[in-house]
Design brief:
Helix content: 10-25%
Strand order of the largest sheet: 1-2-3
Structural class: alpha+beta
Largest sheet: 3 strands, antiparallel
Strand content: 15-25%
Shape: elongated
Distance between the termini: 41 Å
Order of helices and strands: HEEEH
Number of helices: 2
Radius of gyration: 17 Å
Amino acid sequence: PYEPTAGFLRPEVGVAAHLDVAARHGATIRRPETVTGWQPDGTGVAVTTTQGTYRADRLVLTAGPWSAELLAS
């Protein structure tokens, strides 16, 4: 049904805003890179991408609707 007081969102603007805030708080944004795997390594996690392997203390996954498939194994 029609909602005369409804609005709409532009998701690209929201994603860009989140990336900006993350970068200002010290996050390293790497793009465009495809993650090919990750593995705990005893003191954190090693993340392998199409561009190399990175180490981090923590890993945050933001796969949205692909989370179930990505985390199945």
